[in-house]
Design a protein that fits this description.
With 311 residues, the protein is mostly helical. It folds into 3 domains: 2-51; 87-220, no CATH class; 250-310. It is built from 13 helices and no strands. Helix 3 packs parallel to helix 6 and helix 5 packs antiparallel against helix 6 (123-139). The protein starts with a helix and ends with a helix.
Length: 311
């Protein structure tokens, strides 16, 4: 590679443009370097596959690791599904909602539980078992006005401490493997306190100043302010309530206007624009109909809830 780089930088490598002996020498050196590179690649591949049997060992270890991760994911999915099927998620939601202080009390408790679990569980177990249970509960409160990106980063920073917290921190195992015998395990445990404190400080800073997390996603995303996932959940909830109330009070005027627009002759427009308009009109009609059905369902649930609680 070094020889090829030297030749390409100092010689004219276009055969049709060869005009001097120097150019011929450069092309000759380039051909020789290319042949050497091809031979070395072929020899390396042959050695890996046939002589040292490295590829076979790497593939086996990769398959084992991948199978282990997928078994963990499968077991976690089964556990989470069973937990929800037996009402565990409702118990957690009721417990968190019964706490004074609103969202931030719930958030602090969840972060504390994840931090404590990091002492005993791997980050994979926490991510696939605990997070799917608590995240929907925390994100369901629009008054908190948080984004899913911010919550994910906060949980990720918290889980990051599990690499350092004894007794099962991965980083501690790695350090124990390379450290001399004179360095005691207890000394390692004491040494990571400063690093854990720095991570908790970063967690606190991101928690009190969410723009550190939300700034870049808001700039690179092409979604609107109210498109899912909402950047501003409180605004999303207010707009949804306003639209629902407006449609309920207009006496069907909006739906009638859409039906009138659907009857317009769009043949004068380009086919792509006419198709987009037709799809938009049909989608608006379906959305309004679905919203009306959702409102009726919510009213039925609200009316049935007191009777269920009395039972």
């Amino acid at each position: 590679l070094g020889m090829l780089t030297f030749v390409l930088s100092n010689f004219e490598m276009n055969i049709k443009a060869v005009s001097t002996t120097r150019d011929v020498v450069g092309i000759t050196i380039g051909i020789a370097a290319s042949l050497m590179l091809i031979i070395s690649l072929v020899w390396s591949a042959w050695r890996v596959m046939k002589i040292e049997d490295t590829l076979n060992g790497v593939m086996l270890e990769t398959a084992k690791t991948t199978a282990l991760v997928f078994i963990i994911l499968l077991g976690a999915a089964m556990l989470t599904a069973s937990f929800r099927a037996f009402g565990g998620e409702e118990l957690v939601r009721n417990f968190l909602n019964s706490l004074p202080g609103g969202f931030w009390t719930q958030f602090v408790i969840v972060m504390g539980v994840i931090f404590i679990l990091g002492f005993f569980l791997d980050f994979i177990e926490i991510a696939v078992v605990v997070v799917p249970i608590v995240s929907p509960i925390l994100l369901s409160d629009p008054s908190a006005n948080i984004t899913a990106v911010w919550l994910g980063v906060m949980i990720g920073l918290n889980i990051q401490t599990s690499f350092l917290t004894p007794p099962f921190g991965f980083a501690l195992f790695y350090l124990r493997g390379v450290a001399p015998a004179s360095v005691k395990t207890l000394q390692m445990y004491k040494g990571v306190i400063a690093f854990i404190s720095l991570q908790l400080l970063a967690l606190f800073i991101v928690g009190i100043y969410p723009p550190l997390v939300n700034y870049l996603p808001n700039r690179v995303s092409f979604l609107s302010e109210t498109a899912p996932p909402p950047r501003n959940p409180k605004l999303q909830a207010c707009l949804a309530s306003f639209v629902e109330q407006s449609l309920a009070e207009d006496g069907g005027a909006t739906l009638a206007a859409i039906e009138t627009a659907k009857s317009l002759d769009l043949s004068m427009l380009p086919k792509s624009i006419a198709s987009d308009l037709t799809k938009g009109f049909n989608g608006a009609t379906s959305a309004i109909s679905g919203l009306a059905e959702m409102t009726v369902t919510q009213q039925a649930v609200a009316e049935a809830a007191p009777d269920r609680s009395e039972e």
